[in-house]
Amino acid sequence: MSAVSKVFVARLVGLAVLGPDGESIGRVRDAVISVRLPGQQPRALGLAVELTTRRRIFVAMLRVTSIEPNAVTLNTGTVSLRRLHLRPGEALAIGQILDTRVRVVDPDLPDLAGIDVPVVDLGIERTRTRDWVVARVAVRTGRRGLRRGETHVVEWSNVRGMTQSSLDLPGQGVAQALLQFEGMRAADVANALRELPTKRRDEIASALDDERLADVLQELPPDDQKDLLAHLELDRAVDVLEAMDPDDAADLLGELSDTEAESFLARMDPEDSEPVRRLLTHSPDTAGGLMTSEPIIVTPATTVAEALARVRDPDINPAAASLVFVVRPPTSTPTGKYLGCVHVQALLREPPANIVGGILDTDLAHLRPEDSLETVTRYFATYNLVCGPVVDDQHHLLGAVSVDDLLDQLLPRDWRETEPMDHADEVRS
């Protein structure tokens, strides 16, 4: 396949990035554009490349040897592993520029004169000096009566308003950015949002539905969580907190002042706020502070088929789904008497019509809410578990700790933002 010297940015997204020997380095997720002064042709400075570790790095366009329909090839297999960071005057094509509104002054398109139209793509091309510049801009007109909107490709010189100051204006669209996030894991969306300026991040957060935003918020570092929550309208912030897992909501509210936390809790539905309040009574570095109050809980009369249906719930993470806890009614925490647990492997070996009360593991030790991080860590290591029950002195099930919550507490507070000390600065293909 022949290499190209002209390409639209949206077509780059998802392409494999290869070293000169053909080994994969990552995939293109965006392009970094220099948007500085009015009248100055924007340059494509480089690509935002997502590594297999989900980290996004910057790869300069000067390192690009060729762009083909299925891959981008670099002239080196060694790239910097430093996280992508935008400098003043730089913007992400997909994440920021697409959906912004510009004016077109093309005499061949008189119907576009005097109206604001959204940018839907950027055409970049390589110059004789090997620089890449924005040469064309694709814009779309709005629907007019029964006529659908049309897409026009305009020379960059005929476009007005694509400046850094215009990107800072409120009310820019986010459709293209949201499209890019479809199908991505919440943790990867969180990483992408952290790369964006505060204004753009808040616009995208406002456009996400409550459930999706709650999932993403849970994957952000604490300081970013607080900042994003503060930029939401109060009613929306309450809705998002209600959509979060109780333990994650408790962790976030635990970062706020008592007054701020109580303000949110008072506005939440009591059914959602009550488990959060209970979790906040425990120290964050204990089993009670780590646990979720909503593990999989059933009665002994529940059939194997019903228990497996609960396990298959996509909203429950794999660690939490590894154990089903069996109690006397009520089944909401704090439950009736805790009877034992059933391992998923045991469920898979039983006929669907059997009841879980007949295959209980009653010998597995449990955690107490006051147990320390070291005790919880030793518990998981001793019993080779990824999830464990937390039971009080009256033998009520209070919740369960999963290994992902434990790791969040054991790792440094800023682990999402920093590289391990022994991590190389470069990756070789």
From TrEMBL:
Species of provenance: Gordonia oryzae
Q: Which InterPro entries match?
A: CBS_dom, CBS_dom_sf, Mg_transptr_MgtE_intracell_dom, MgtE_N_sf, MgtE_transporter, PRC_barrel-like_sf, SH3_actinomycetes
Q: Does the keyword Cytoplasm apply?
A: no
* Gene Ontology cellular-component terms listed: membrane
> What is the name of this protein?
Magnesium transporter
Q: Which Pfam families match?
A: CBS, MgtE_N, SH3_actinomycetes
GO MF term list? magnesium ion transmembrane transporter activity
Entry's Gene3D superfamilies? CBS-domain, MgtE N-terminal domain-like
Q: Where is the CBS domain?
A: 360-418
Keywords for this protein:
CBS domain
Record CDD domains: CBS_pair_Mg_transporter
Q: Which SUPFAM superfamilies match?
A: CBS-domain pair, MgtE N-terminal domain-like, PRC-barrel domain
Give the top-rank taxon of the lineage listed in the UniProt record for this protein. Answer: Bacteria
- As recorded in UniProt, coiled-coil segments are none
- List the SMART domains hit by this protein, alphabetically: MgtE_N (SM00924)
